[in-house]
Amino acid sequence: MSYKESDRSMETRLLAYEHASWMTEIAAWANGLIGKEPPEFPQYRVIRIIHFQVLATQDGYNALVLVEVVERPEETEQIALRAEDIAVIEELTSTVGEEPTNGVEQVG
Hints:
Number of helices: 2
Strand content: 25-35%
Strand order of the largest sheet: 1-3-2
Helix content: 10-25%
Structural class: alpha+beta
Oligomer: single chain
Number of strands: 3
Order of helices and strands: EHEEH
Number of domains: 1
Radius of gyration: 24 Å
Shape: elongated
Distance between the termini: 26 Å
């Protein structure tokens, strides 16, 4: 079973950046959000920036960024294994550390 982003519900979050001296500072911050966990929402990962707005202030700039996020899978989430997979894993791991017979390793 593999994780697919389409299996998770997409949500949006509004993030803010305050007291930037330059527009490039805001751009670097916003571009750095993609694929990462926003500090305010560590259980999510940013998929894309939907919209952002920059506000000029007396000392520089503030920005509001609307991002699309996906919830990160729980660390305790388990992967379902078929009985055949378990049998192969057990067979492979049961011979670990054993000496090969006649200098040749036997598998299976």
